[in-house]
Design a protein that fits this description.
The chain contains 16 helices and 14 strands. With about 450 residues, the chain is α+β, with helices and mostly antiparallel strands.
């Protein structure tokens, strides 16, 4: 078929489509849009939006027996790259000529003009055949990140893994429609961050269909998203959740999205700016190493810490944090040490924190760790609130929320320090590892004590 014939057919199809859609009703839905925001307040407005999808699909379906539409569909079926991809999976629904033409027609429709455009239709066909000819397409995971405020345009954590700042216009474009989800949250405007993770992959292989390849890639991208969230939690204290999570193909477009059963509305947000880029990259590297070096102790501890970060009740959060610390501090040569739990917790905790921060005073740190362990025991055994207040008051805290933040921050420092060490050099794996951390500090303080006594006479 000559190019000018194809252009004429495209013109004919779009003219027929525009005639049909002009008589169709366009459904209205609504969404909340952000008018302006400053300080801690914002102004929203409920705006009507036209939903043309049903009208577009009805129009395309009505063209099934239209002569020009049939010719275009037959033309698509004879394109070599289309035939090649069909040969890899004859049952592949999205690559059938009918579905390809439907995709092209939808892409040719302009919502603002309410019309199908023949030039756009042929341009989309060229793009599609170029991708099919290459045998590769790009799958992108896009997730809205709640609980974080990004103060710069972009943070590229790794090639093809980015945090992207959304301006107000982008936020409003992504606002959910009132009828879109069954979940209660209809406003995502408190989030200005989108996570984008990309991977180029084969459309199909000799031994795997498109959907098999697709599922493998999507699983890989979602694991990377989890690593991004863990990295942020390693950098910042807060609660974070990614939703909705959508997948897009450069060839097939939207491949679906999902939402958690219980999406969280998070009012307090942590922030990231230009000064945090290297720290976030380092955290991402550490998260990957924790999963790759097969250190079960560190992996188990870090997992419990992450559970604690999402806990809403301060008492339960403290218990989770102490369990995360216990996994590290009460392990000797890779095995859990059940003897003298409170003593080991406080002694080893003081040892590792003083090894990280040489200015830190050992006995005060040991008292802090011991008191924290006692608070955990009081909570677990049903102690009264006034006894809890008495305990955390002894170490200078007004409430459990502040104590939890301090425990989390110290834990992050420990994880960063441990990640630098080789697995076998970490104190819970190394023979006499904890003792070797404790002895130098005790020796130093004992020497200072003897010197002080000598100076007094």
């Amino acid at each position: 078929m000559k190019d000018f014939d194809l252009q004429m057919i495209a013109n004919d199809i779009c003219a027929a489509a525009n005639s049909k859609i002009a008589s169709m009703s366009i459904y209205l839905d609504y969404k909340w849009v952000l008018i302006d925001a400053k300080d801690n307040g914002k102004r929203m407005q409920l705006m009507p939006i036209e939903i043309a999808d049903n009208a577009i699909l009805s129009t395309i379906f009505a063209l099934n027996d239209y002569p020009a539409y049939i010719k275009f569909r037959e033309y698509i079926g004879k394109i070599d790259c289309v035939q090649n991809i069909i040969s890899t999976d004859k049952e592949f629904y999205l690559i059938q000529p009918e579905q390809i033409l439907t995709k092209l027609m939808r892409a040719s429709f302009s919502t603002s003009e309410r019309s199908f455009n023949s030039l756009r239709l042929l341009t989309e066909l060229e793009k599609l055949t170029a991708i099919l000819g290459s045998g590769l397409h790009e799958i992108t995971l896009v997730a809205r990140l709640h609980g974080l405020n990004l103060e710069i345009d972009l943070i590229e954590i790794e090639p093809n893994i980015s945090l992207v700042h959304l301006d107000n216009e982008a936020i409003n474009q992504r606002q959910p429609k009132i009828t879109e989800h069954s979940h209660a949250i209809r406003d995502y405007s408190d989030s200005n961050v989108e996570v984008r993770i990309k991977k180029e992959c084969p459309i199909a292989t000799y031994d795997k269909t498109f959907w098999q390849v697709h599922q493998e890639v999507v699983s890989e991208l979602e694991l990377k998203l989890k690593s991004v969230l863990k990295s942020i939690k390693l950098c910042r204290h807060g609660r974070f959740q990614a939703y909705p999570i959508s997948h897009f193909s450069s060839l097939f477009g939207d491949l679906g999205s999902n939402m958690p059963l219980e999406p969280m509305f998070i009012s307090e947000k942590a922030t990231l700016n230009e000064n945090d880029i290297e720290g976030l990259k380092q955290a991402f590297s550490i998260v990957k190493s924790i999963s790759q070096d097969k250190d079960n102790v560190l992996d188990r501890s870090f997992s419990r810490f992450l559970i604690g970060l999402d806990e809403r009740i301060p008492e339960e959060q403290l218990v989770d944090f102490v369990i995360a610390w216990e996994s590290l501090l009460q392990t000797v040569n890779g095995e859990s040490n059940k003897a003298e739990l409170a003593y080991r917790f406080s002694l080893n905790g003081a040892a590792i924190l003083c090894a990280i921060d040489h200015v830190r005073e050992f006995t005060a740190t040991q008292t802090f760790m011991k008191t924290t362990y006692n608070i955990r025991s009081t909570i677990v055994h049903g102690g009264k609130s006034d006894s809890l207040a008495n305990e955390f008051g002894k170490i200078g805290f007004n409430n459990l929320v502040d104590l939890n933040k301090e425990l989390a921050e110290l834990y992050r420092q420990v994880i960063l320090w441990l990640s630098i060490l080789k697995k076998e050099e970490r104190p819970y794996h190394k023979k006499f590892g904890w003792e070797l951390l404790v002895i130098p500090k005790h020796k130093e303080e004992a020497t200072d004590d003897i010197r002080e006594k000598g100076e007094r006479g």
